[in-house]
Model the fold of this input.
Amino acid sequence: MNPQISVVIPFLNEEESLPELLAWIERVMNENKFSYEVLMIDDGSTDGSWKVVEALRIQNPNIKGIKFRRNYGKSAALNVAFHACIGNVIITMDADMQDSPDEIPALYKMIVEEDYDLVSGWKKRRFDPITKTIPTKFFNAATRAISGIQLNDFNCGLKAYKQEVVKSIEIYNEMHRYIPVLAKWSGFYKIAEKEVQHRARKYGTTKFGIERFINGFLDLLTIFFVSRFGKRPMHFFGVLGTLTFMIGFIITSYIIGAKLFHVAMGDTLPRNITDQPLFYIALVLSIIGVQLFLAGFIGEMISRNASERNVYGITKRIGIDE
Done:
């Protein structure tokens, strides 16, 4: 029988916070009489984090773990965890103690009793510096505009999902920031938001730098394109290529027609076609149009024969069936 809740926690070098966090989760689960599993994903830690997980596993068999050979990133950790977890409701949270396990019962209730597909946390009052909060607001606004999902905090690590949601989406690169978008475009429209507590960091330092904002913007564009044209690239490149080629063809026809008109009218010194700037514009447009059309055709062939995208080097497992 599947447990009621799977708590998924990706982590990197968090040996100080793990014992306290897992003890807190265990207390919350026991108080609410939940059946559960805690799935720990070690994203290439170089400290003693994995030894802490092994020791805690001996004390609590509900704790399971997967260790990566090196650091692959949070998206990779979540993707592997989503394939491995078996709970009816999946709760994700960060390992830095900034997410409160006391939020779990309310999130679980919203999924089970209110029948939401996904509930995203909203850390309305944050303890982050302004250099992090302002770019975050910008990306949240851009994501709302593109996706149509009215969430205030897409990147909050504390989220709850129905099992079928996490089994239906694939997360790669840095796309963990846009899981609600991936869920919606996979057919899960009942998405809600719950205000949650944001706690000040107690141990360690943040693992994310300024480059995450650049990567986040690029991944947002990727999601926008892949979700709409990933399975039919010809619908994008083919249409764009055809329009571009047709514009070039129309300009070329105009130039040739004008040349023939001047010749027919007896103009003894008609302007050479190659002396006109429009000729080179038409030539470039025609070439680009053909290239875009071929890109769409090649994309169609690749999409029909694509193998699995995610392959990770996992060195150890605890409590996970091979």
In short: Strands lie at 5-11, 36-42, 63-68, 89-92, 118-122, 159-162, 191-195, 314-318. The domain at 5-229 is CATH 3.90.550.10 (Spore Coat Polysaccharide Biosynthesis Protein SpsA; Chain A). The first strand starts at residue 5 and ends at 11. Residues 234-264 form the longest helix (31 residues).
